[in-house]
Design a protein that fits this description.
abc type-2 transporter like fold, alpha/beta, transport, ABC-2_transporter_component, transmembrane helix
């Protein structure tokens, strides 16, 4: 025990002497947690719309006003020909074109039907899909208003009333969905990258040979390398969850906090074991950074942070089952938003325990082979 304590003292001194490392460990995660949830918003706004109005009627003006007043669209121009409007899309000055045909108001009143044409710049698939859906919904609402206006007062039109209730995120705040996931991402970046550099630094400065010939056992060395970053990871997680998320976004865990901390503690052990495993295979910091960044990038992109895992192809869903970050993001959202406890996260906890056991055992065994 005394050996481990001495190793921990040595590791903490080495960490806090590194003036370039401290901002990365403490300042960068806080700034990222403050900025990233505000920027990572899938709600598309300020869609540039070009209108080609061949009718110039009262109804066509009302439709255009209703669209621009929705808050989603910004009128980029009003042209008399479709060819002129298409140049707006070609010049990246517009995202959608709405063409209103001649006789729009007359045919709508006389024949109860009319068509409008919508052209969408589909280079950005998400923006195109959402923009087209928003526009279609606004036109449908406008159509409903006209129907109500021309319906006889004593005529009863059939309809369906929908009563809805939003669970777990009552006001549908997108930041409430993103903050737990981004916090999990930051804990992963700090724990994974920093631990991957740990043993490699000892190799570069030449102290690894001194450690190898000392009476320190191999598992003492691994534990001494793992615990400091485990403590720092838990500290960063606590600051992010109870300070930044609470004060900046008004988010507080609805579920079991002990269950969440237990899961994060085991997750950090697994992640640090993965970082130490990378460190045993690499000979310098450049190699370790490249390998760690390669795996962490894949982990984050296939974690369900931005794209639901259920929407991925079958092979990607299979790969995601071996992604520890996916389990952390899932548990974070379950506990913070849904109010889950030990019972609900039992499967994820057992899985992450298996990750921790395998990765740390592999790191210890590989260090013995290559030292």
């Amino acid at each position: 025990m005394r050996t481990i304590i001495l190793l921990l003292q040595k590791e903490f001194r080495q960490i806090f002497r590194n003036k370039a490392l401290l901002p990365i460990l403490f300042v960068a995660p806080i700034m990222q947690l403050l900025i990233l949830p505000l920027a990572a918003d899938y709600e598309v706004k300020n869609i540039n719309l070009t209108v080609v109005d061949h009718d110039h009627s009262d109804y066509s003006h009302k439709l255009t006003s209703k669209i621009t007043a929705s808050g989603y669209f910004r009128l980029a121009g009003n042209f008399n020909s479709y060819k002129e409007a298409l140049k707006q899309i070609e010049g990246d000055a517009s995202d959608l074109i709405l063409e209103i045909p001649q006789g729009f108001e007359r045919d709508l009143i006389r024949e109860n039907t009319q068509k409008v044409f919508v052209a969408v710049d589909a280079i950005n698939g998400i923006k195109a899909g959402l923009g087209g859906a928003y526009l279609g919904r606004i036109i449908a609402d406008f159509n409903g208003e006209i129907r109500m206006k021309w319906t006889q007062p004593n005529m009863i039109t059939p309809g369906i009333d929908i009563a809805s209730s939003n669970w777990y995120n009552v006001h549908m705040e997108y930041t409430h969905y993103m903050v737990p996931g981004i916090l999990a991402l930051l804990v992963t970046l700090v724990g994974g990258l920093m631990s991957a550099l740990n043993i490699v630094i000892e190799k570069e400065i030449g102290t690894i040979e001194q450690i190898n010939v000392s009476p320190i056992r191999k598992y003492h060395f691994i534990i001494g390398k793992l615990i400091p970053f485990w403590i720092l990871g838990m500290f960063i997680f606590t600051i992010g969850l109870f300070v930044i998320a609470r004060l900046a976004y008004g988010i507080f865990p609805m579920g079991s906090i002990p269950a969440l901390y237990l899961f994060v503690a085991v997750y950090l052990i697994a992640l640090l074991g993965f970082g130490l495993l990378i460190s045993t295979y690499c000979n310098n910091q450049q190699q370790a950074m490249s390998v760690a960044f390669f795996f962490i990038l894949i982990f984050n992109l296939m974690s369900g942070l931005f794209t639901p895992i259920d929407s991925m192809p079958g092979w990607a869903q299979t790969v995601a089952k071996f992604n520890p970050v996916a389990y952390l993001i899932d548990v974070m959202r379950m506990v913070v938003l849904k109010g889950s406890g030990f019972k609900e996260i039992k499967t994820q906890l057992l899985t992450i325990c298996a990750f921790a056991l395998v990765l740390n055992s592999w790191a210890v065994i590989n260090y013995r082979k290559r030292s």
